[in-house]
Design goal:
The protein contains no helices and 15 strands. It is an all-beta fold and 224 residues long. Strand 1 and strand 2 form a beta hairpin. The N terminus is likely disordered.
Length: 224
């Protein structure tokens, strides 16, 4: 056995303190759900965001402690994300070709958005100051999130028409850096994409490249 102060970590994975027995093989934060506001970075000068671009996420992360105190760990998981990006960029598909038009303030439209449904694989390096008895603690989780977009759609709604189609220009494999920081229930979540939302070479009607990089900021909730 290893003796540290008044605690004894035994081969059975239990903590002995003043005659009491506590489980030392606990795991933290294995289920998560979150809500974000989605920004688009590197927009062409004529393109702007409109309405409320939002994201929802949920999933499971396997917690893998790396030290005897279980304050440092790896997390590997599987999740599902829904993301919407509202802009003044209209996408139209005709004869297998997709064109993008920048709408001005006088254009008749209510909503123009890109919506993605994503199968996500988060990988995290985790630090927290939790103990077997303490359920309120600080956490800093940084890492990489990879995503497979199994449904990427463009939707357009005006006062007279609605149009929706599967947009093949949306990048199928997406990935970015993540950071979760917080205490107890409320934690701030950041995601910064390392590749653009669209495939390379996609341009608008003016010939400007559409290299839109998502930045998602919001809250994430972890559950044991």
């Amino acid at each position: 056995m290893i003796v540290i102060g008044l605690h004894c970590l035994c081969a059975t994975g239990q903590v002995l303190t003043s005659g009491e027995v506590r489980d030392s093989r606990y795991f933290e934060d294995q289920f998560y759900t979150g809500l974000t506001y989605n920004f688009l970075m590197d927009l062409p000068s004529e393109v702007s965001q409109r309405n409320l671009s939002y994201g929802l996420q949920a999933g499971f992360i396997k917690d893998i402690p790396l030290d005897v105190f279980r304050t440092i760990a790896l997390g590997v998981g599987l999740g599902y994300g829904i993301n919407s990006y509202y802009t003044n960029l209209k996408a139209v598909e005709e004869s297998g070709q997709i064109t993008y038009t920048v709408l001005d303030e006088k254009a008749d439209f209510k909503r123009s958005k890109i919506a993605t449904h994503v199968l996500e694989l988060p990988i995290q390096f985790r630090w927290r100051n939790s103990t077997p008895e303490e359920y309120k603690f600080w956490r800093i989780y940084s890492g990489l999130k990879m995503g497979y977009v199994f449904d990427g759609r463009s939707k357009f709604v005006s006062s007279s028409a609605k149009n929706s189609f599967a947009n093949s220009d949306v990048r199928t494999f997406q990935y970015g850096l993540t950071l979760d920081v917080g205490y107890n229930t409320f934690n701030i979540h950041f995601y910064y994409a390392l590749k653009s939302l669209f495939n390379d070479g996609v341009i608008d009607e003016l010939g400007d490249p559409l290299q839109l990089k998502p930045l998602r900021v919001g809250l994430i909730f972890y559950i044991l």
